[in-house]
Each structure stands twice: as C-alpha cells, then as structure tokens.
Amino acid sequence: MVVEMKENGVAAAADAGEKVAQPQLNVKRGEPTLVPPAAPTPTGEQYYLSNLDQNIAVIVQTVYCYKPSPPGDGKDKDDVATALRDALARVLVHYHPLAGRLGISPEMKLTVELTAEGVVFVEGDADCDLAVVGDLTKPDPAALGQLVYSVPGAKHILEMPPMTAQVTRFSCGGFALGLAMNHCMFDGIGAMEFVNSWAETARGAAELTVPPFLDRSLLKARDPPAHTFPHHEFAEIPDVSDTAALYGSQELLYRSFCFDPDRLERVRALALAGGDLARCTTFEALSGLVWRARTRALGLAPEQRTKLLFAVDGRRRFVPPLPRGYFGNGIVLTNAIATAGELLSAPVSRAAALVQDAVRMVTDEYMRSAVDYFEATRARPSLASTLLITTWSRLEFHGADFGWGEPVMSGPVTLPEKEVILFLAHGKERKSINVLLGLPATAMDAFQELMDEI
C-alpha cells in the first residue's frame, strides 16, 4: 500500500515514523432501479430450471475493476453507468430469464417466473482511488461487499432477484462492476458467456458471439427416475472431530496461496512420487494436496470420514453434448471419501488418486443418475465434514471489456460457504493458480506452515 500511496506523498511521512491512516473504502449508493429487457420478451409463464440448477442455489458475488481511461480518449467515468445499463437492457432480450423472479413450481422445485421486471441496477460513488480496493486475490468481504448490491432484509433466495448489478465510480476515474448472481441461473461458464455478451453489446456488437441456448429441458429426469450410482455427494457425515466448535470459537481467516508454474510442477511431482498414479493433471494433484493439508490443519481425528466435492464440467461429457451457449448449470458434483487417518498416513499421491477416480466416474450415465437421484429424493449435497473445491482457473473473465478495456483485476467478494476452496487463475499469462480458502485462525496457521513446505 505504501507504494500505491507514494504519489500522494504519504510514503515519506511513513518513512519518518509517523502513523498514517490508510484510506478506507466508503461507497455511497444511489437508489436501486430496474433494468428490464429493451424489447418485449415472454411473460406470464414459468421458465424451467433443471435438477442440476436446483443443487446450487447460492448467491455468487464477483467484482470487476477497471482503471481510468487515458486523457483525451473521449470516455468519462460518468458515462459508464449509462452505457452498462443500456447494454444490459439490450442483452436481457437474449437472456430474458434473468429479468424474472424466482418462484416454486407445482413440483416444489425452483423455477423462474417470467415477469420481465428487470435486473436490479445500482450506481455508487467511492471517495477514494481504485487502488484502495487492494488485492482481489485476498478478498475482504466487509469492504468489497460495498461494491455489490444485496437486497436489504431479504431472508432467502426467493426474496432476491436472480441478479443485481452495481457500478461504482472512483475518484481516480476508474470504476468497478459488482455482480450478485444466483448460481441456479448458470454455472461459471454460463456466467462468463453472459458477462462477455453484455460487454460486447456495450461495445456495439450487432450480434452475440455466443448466443444463449435457453432450453434446459435437455436435462430433464428420466421417467421413471433411475439413479444407478450411490451418489455419496449427498451423504451426511458425522462430525466426530467437533470441528463445529473450532469454527465457532475462533475468527475465520481468509488467505490466498499462489502456485506458480514451478510450484505446480513440484505439486505434480509429489502426486506422482508415491506410486499410486502413472500420470495426473494439475487439478488432481493440487486438489489432493489441499484436501490432505486442510485435513491435517483442522486436526481431524483419524477415524473422521472426510468428503471431497468438486464440480466437473459435463457439457462435453453428456451424450449428446450440450449445445454451445447452454444457459444453465452444465456441471455435476463428484466426490471422494476417506478417513483422515487414511489421507494423512499415505503420501499426497493417495489423495490425488482418489481425486482422479472421482473425475473418471463422471460419465453420461453418472450425470443422468445424479439428475434422477434429485428427482426421486429432493436431496441436496451435504457439506457436513466436507471440502468443496470450485475451479475458476479456466474462466476467462478478463474478456469483460465494456469499452473501457479489460478489467485490471476481477475476483470473488467472499467464499459462499466455509467449506469452499476456490482455485483462481493468476497473472497475465494465467499459468499460476491462487488457492483461496478460509479457516479458523489456528488451523490457518497450520495450513500456512504446510504450504510453506511446498
């Protein structure tokens, strides 16, 4: 931060031993408005959400930060909200379910009421420079939460719109776009395609590069449902280690750990060294490493069963593959289960092998079985004694150029659940991976020590 402040002459004061108050992010919001589609869209009916959409109905908050435009380029920060609002109205003609509201179908499932009410849109102003936002790889939920709009008093997702957008202008001329989107509307790939479609609309494109495919009935359950796999992702695992007490008694710390290409290669070497695997991907190796390290850091009892959940993109694994631009969740959760003793008494290669087995399990039949399992049971994946890894490292959110250039940084506001670990691409070449997680203070210190050994 001292480097960022040198332009203001603060560094000299700091060097002289004076205490200098760091600028704080303080956003003043205007009144929320609604942005409906720019042309008539279907109304008065329900839009079908598949069983894969039902499983992950959580709000995902992300922020995109844009630096000031160069002097004389004709673009002003005061124009950005108008440009984004107008482009949003136009792109919603294609993505019209986002302008509706969540409801419950006669089958007691989440659905979208096609009301064309519009996306909630808010403008805000921050009395500081964009630099104060800091490093999005180390999110500060209290501060960054000011850049994303949440409906006041909403107690559950039915009281929240599928999407809200907030444009925050900074005194330096930069701005931030904060989005809160319900995961039931789309997965990471779908969200990326929507944001990029919105951006190219703002840049004046006459047609979308990837128009959305809206028909989710492709993923309807079979009749009758036939779940042919055990689907342990739904299993409730007893917390015999009483980690709930640990989480309840200590502050939850968030940290980000960067794995550059050299460090990732060392992780892969560890995964291959134990003899359990002949080959493995970076994801399999890194997932096995952090699953094992988190297990040790939390001090789980040897008999404690622990579950690893992660999403596999099923778009190309379905038979036939899902159409390009599929608007919805094309991901399926797969799982691996082991006791803490099994993980910690074996090398990293054992955990990585379990991850690899979980990846290979995801076939067309497994995914259809998962769809049918929910149809028959209405069960949702349990996070008891679970680690859920979600991967954004392949999502090209840097392509969100609304006419002011690519975002200088983008990332999550916070993690949706304490059990979640996020893999984020890092650096301009996107060859490094940031591992973001939250742990109780003592466990985070232990996890840090384990990461320092890599």
Tell me the radius of gyration: 23 Å
Morphology call: globular
The CATH architecture category of the largest domain equals: 2-Layer Sandwich
Low-confidence stretches: 1-20
Q: What can be said about the biggest beta sheet?
A: 7 strands, mixed
- Classified by CATH, the class of the largest domain is Alpha Beta
CATH superfamily of the largest domain: Chloramphenicol acetyltransferase-like domain
Spell the H/E element sequence: HHEEEHEHEEEHEEHHEHHEEHHHEEEEH
Indicate the mean pLDDT: 90
Keywords: Acyltransferase, Transferase
Family: Belongs to the plant acyltransferase family.
Region (Disordered): 22-41
GO molecular function, one term: acyltransferase activity, transferring groups other than amino-acyl groups
Outline the fold blueprint:
Blueprint: H1 2-5, H2 10-15, E1 27-29, E2 33-35, E3 46-47, H3 51-54, E4 59-66, H4 77-91, E5 101-104, E6 110-113, E7 119-126, H5 141-144, E8 163-170, E9 175-182, H6 188-202, H7 243-249, E10 252-259, H8 261-273, H9 282-297, E11 305-313, E12 331-339, H10 340-344, H11 348-360, H12 364-377, E13 386-391, E14 409-412, E15 420-426, E16 432-440, H13 441-452
Parallel strand pairs: 7-8, 11-13, 13-15
Antiparallel strand pairs: 1-7, 2-7, 3-6, 4-9, 4-14, 5-6, 8-9, 10-16, 11-12, 15-16
Helix pairs in contact: 4-6, 8-9, 8-11, 9-11, 9-13
Pfam families: Transferase (PF02458)
GO molecular function, one term: acyltransferase activity, transferring groups other than amino-acyl groups
Family: Belongs to the plant acyltransferase family.
